[in-house]
Hints:
The structure is a homodimer. By secondary structure, chain A is of the alpha/beta class. Helix content of chain A is 46%, strand content 17%. The first copy, chain A, has 2 domains: 8-130 and 299-335, 3-Layer(aba) Sandwich (Isopropylmalate Dehydrogenase), CATH 3.40.718; 134-288, Isopropylmalate Dehydrogenase. In chain A, strands 3-2-1-4-11-10-5-6-9-7-8 form an 11-stranded mixed sheet, sandwiched between helices. The longest helix of chain A is centred in the last third of the chain and has 26 residues, at 238-263. In chain A, 55% of the residues are buried.
Amino acid sequence: MTKPEAHIRLAIDAMGSDLGPNEVLEGVALAIDRVPRNTNFILFGKKKDLEPIVLSNSILSNSKVEIVHCSEVVGMEEKPIAGIKGKKNSSMSLALQSLKEGEADALLSCGNTGCLMAGGAIKLRTLEGVERPALCTIWPGRERYFTLLDAGANPHAKPFHIVQSAVLGSNYARVALGLVRPKVGLLTIGTEEGKGNEVIHETHSMLKDIDGSIINYAGLIEGFQIFENVVDVVVCDGFVGNIVLKACESLSKLIGTFLDEELRRNTLRKTGALLSKGAFRSLKQRINPEQFGGAPLLGLTKNVIKAHGSSNRNHISGAVKIALDLVQHDMLTQVSQDIQEANEILRPEPLTNR
Amino acid sequence: MTKPEAHIRLAIDAMGSDLGPNEVLEGVALAIDRVPRNTNFILFGKKKDLEPIVLSNSILSNSKVEIVHCSEVVGMEEKPIAGIKGKKNSSMSLALQSLKEGEADALLSCGNTGCLMAGGAIKLRTLEGVERPALCTIWPGRERYFTLLDAGANPHAKPFHIVQSAVLGSNYARVALGLVRPKVGLLTIGTEEGKGNEVIHETHSMLKDIDGSIINYAGLIEGFQIFENVVDVVVCDGFVGNIVLKACESLSKLIGTFLDEELRRNTLRKTGALLSKGAFRSLKQRINPEQFGGAPLLGLTKNVIKAHGSSNRNHISGAVKIALDLVQHDMLTQVSQDIQEANEILRPEPLTNR
């Protein structure tokens, strides 16, 4: 279902990138070519930093781009609650506020993840019936991309939260990967019944209860199956998901470093590397796909997309595309319906005492 | 402390490898060149399979190699308890039995991991004061190797179990990596106090209590720091450890496949790859180091080493070296002392009701 062609307003927290606001704005400019004409961008950040960039860039200055001055910036080292509550005039806070007040349809930020998650939860709240938000990442698999969540929004997950993540992730996989019935797998150790731990047993049983109309549950999967495209949506709690995500990201960087070192070890290898340099470039792009430069924080009342602090302009452009997709497909409405249906099955009694 | 030059007897479960008993025995033959003369090998398996291999291999037939006939083999698909209890005459069961009865000092098996862990726990029991065994793996880091445990022996870990893993892993890092005071890190998400979950908070506090004489605790680490050699011993529960291990193993295989595909895409790339093929060989060896072909199941009364089902002869030879190191350094005695000391600090009351 595509939303009719109303104005789409994207809030951009322009200050949180490791590469500075220029890279973020270059990413927005790249995206502008590919977004619908009716898209407005609201840039949150220091006017003295942003204005010269916009004015010197003909794509930005000729587009529907507005700057909202924010006197503060949330730093990468700030603690979640303190960073948000202590800096009410930061680009992140004010951008979240504009989402809350309906002035924007989606927010993209490369800033401090903890602060963005805390800010999202505090300012925007979760959708009715959703207990915890979940951060949903897209990964490259052997044959195609897949989603993994929760990548760290909720490290104290109960089975019910993980089940809701499955519903959230299925909706995102439909929008971002274009799948009709994405297969969901629950990440565990050993796939025989009885293996894993109590959280897994309970979650597995609840996922089976909502299998069918709400999600397409394919059962338990192990760590070695993640990249094998056995499923399209890998669900796990935020503790496991965050560790696996960060370990895998840093392992692929390490392999890149090792490869680089080995290729420079002598002249013969260097010559070979020069001839096949196209292969290394393609490899990098396959492992770190720029079109999926953003990870949505699912389960909130609004669309919030987190991009990596180190995102380049291509990643930012990819993240803008994701933000637009979520708005255009009106994912929030579908998520709300699915969550209500799942809750009716899993928790038929009125939800009063939680 | 090196054990005096008594006989060392290694039990080898010769039947569990995906590549068949020949590869296991070739690995033993490779190792024989490098082990002390006083090492005896006891091969457990089907006599009709093993005898021809030993007789046709001059290294094996000229060494202290004995075959113990076992009529059964534990399959890769068998369930842990059933595989061990149902097949009392399997090479794995009889090899464990020989350890239990003091006929061997260490056991090496490439067989079914679940069965080996169950068999170790049932037949050998844990060392006095140790509540749960832990599987300890060695990984390549940016500058040097490090250990990670528990890789899956105990998926229901309580803080006390994770703390004991830290003690076990420190001892193994001393022996296998030659470190005097290996640094221990607790794997979590976010390293500020208060992040993570309750298990992490409690474990962190207990690790601080035994920091100093028993372990060298360096604090919390995140997933992206695993490979950065921030610490030498990464501890986590068996659920997280198993998932991270398997995800990382399969990711490095996937990157290998992607690289291979990209290098074959056209003639120029193929030519380059041919010139730099030495680099790819070195890369593979750095990521999958053969000298650490085995992972010990720590915390048992005896030395049990698990090798990958797909181990080649070089990995087997590496695993034999690990088994010998554990025996020669008399790691079990040191572990017992450290565990007693840690328990006196953490649980000063008599351990009766657990």
